[in-house]
Amino acid sequence: MRIALGIEYDGSPYEGWQTQPHGRTVQDVLERALASFANESLASICAGRTDTGVHASGQVVHFDTQREREEQSWVRGVNRYLPPSVSIQWARVVTEEFDARHRARARHYEYWIWNHPVRSALLDRRVGWVFRPLDIDAMRAAARHALGEHDFSSLRSAQCQAATAVRTVSRCDVDRIGGSLIRIRASANAFLHHMVRNLVGALIAVGTGRQSSAWLGELIAARDRTLGAPTMEAEGLYLTGVEYDPRFGLPHVEERWMLR
After folding, report:
1. What CATH number should be reported for the domain holding residue 166?
2. What is the domain range of residue 151?
3. Is residue 256 part of a domain?
4. Against a cut of 0.70, is the pTM above it?
5. C-alpha count within 13 angstroms, C-beta hemisphere, residue 13
6. Residue 158, SS3 per DSSP
7. What tens digit of pLDDT does each residue of 231-256 get?
8. Cβ-Cβ contacts under 8 Å for 21 (sequence gap 6 or more)
9. Which residues contact 159 (CB under 8 A, 6 or more apart)?
């Protein structure tokens, strides 16, 4: 039996998603909880391997098991063994054709910025911080250059192992929420390592006036990471949803603000 899970987690206590020998990752915590509930060792595959400190409200994983349980039992049962920083939101029985990583049609991320002269104690490890004023209109104009299919070599990390840097971005929005919070939403068929954080860094360079709105388009066309802006910190990044073919019967991706 193949089970798909929707997972929410605070990435602050963990060294990313992917399992490590020391066991301090989200995958390690999840698989220990699954083993405790199912009384068997279970290996999970995720839609997106988030980095250290990155959060998720819409991570999707799948695993194969010999145990037959009601879908809601997987939610309530496994959550009993998870720490407060990780929570299963839903479970679905799926066909063996389903693969959380390879069957994903689109992935959605949000990056939240605290744009204020003074850092926030209450939003610590929840947002990126920019103390200089940001020009939202300039950032919006720049963001349009990221839409469509491009070679995003200028926005990938040196450690990126993807075979190609070509990706298709379907959404790149910039909005100011409640005065000091800025939300950047990005959707694509897939993302490169650090691509969203490097995109945000480039938009901030535009928003602070260090670069023009047209510069982002020039940067992407250059295909040269050394010409880009610094990578923004991981704390403001959230994986908010993953889309699949409706035939798999997974819950619909809902719009919601991570911070209010």
Report:
1. 3.30.70.660
2. 106-239
3. no
4. yes
5. 12
6. coil
7. 999 999 999 999 999 999 998 766 55
8. none
9. 193
51 is catalytic: yes
* Per-position b or e across 222-232, b if 16+ CB within 10 A of its CB: eeebeebbebb
Query: Is the same domain home to 149 and 206?
Result: yes
Average of per-residue pLDDT values in the chain = 95
Give the pLDDT confidence score for residue 111 in this predicted structure: 98
* Same-domain check for residues 110 and 232: yes
Q: Same domain for 116 and 81?
A: no
CATH number of the domain encompassing residue 59 = 3.30.70.580
Residue type, 145: H
Strands 106-115 and 181-188: antiparallel
Rounded to whole angstroms, how far apart are CA atoms 255 and 203? 23
Determine which one of 10, 51, 99, 151 is catalytic: 51
Please report whether residue 9 resides in a domain: yes
* One domain for residues 110 and 94: no
